[in-house]
Design goal:
Oligomer: single chain
Number of helices: 4
Strand content: under 5%
Radius of gyration: 25 Å
Structural class: mainly alpha
Helix content: 55-70%
Number of strands: 0
Distance between the termini: 83 Å
Largest sheet: none
Shape: elongated
Amino acid sequence: MVTAVSQGESSEQLAMPVNLGSNERIASTVIGGALLLFGLNRLSIPALVVTALGGGFLVRGVTGYCPITAARERDERIAARGRLAEKESHGGGEERGKRPNAKAGR
């Protein structure tokens, strides 16, 4: 039997992270199984599409990983870093929480 784990890598490093909650996993598994069975019982192009969607939902539910959710979360982290960097660059070097002294010239 050939394994996908190479030297220096554990199976935990290769596993996809779980980014779905248990309710979402259950719903994806049930819906995916239903769509898969529905599509397999028919012979047409639309049934093939339904079967593929069902398979995708089934894999999503069983693994607990959704690449769309992962991409959305990554984009949200990048946007948050951008907002933080923008806020820091517009701070003008002033200490946080202190307002500039408008009467400094007097």
